[in-house]
Amino acid sequence: MFAANIKQVAALMQNGQLSAKDLCELCIKRMKRIKELNVFITEMPDLALNSACAADRRIKNGSGDILEGIPIAFKDNFSTAGIRTSCASRMLKGYVPPYNATVVEKLISRGSVLMGKTNMDEFAMGCGSVDGAFGPVRNPWKYRFEATRRDRPGAAQSSPSAARIADRGRQFHSASPSQCLDVEADDSAEWFIAGGSSGGSAVSVASGAVLAALGSDTGGSTRNPASYCGVVGLKPTYGLLSRHGLIPLVNSMDVPGILTRSVDDAVVILSEALWFC
Question: Does 221 qualify as catalytic in the annotation?
Answer without folding.
Answer: yes
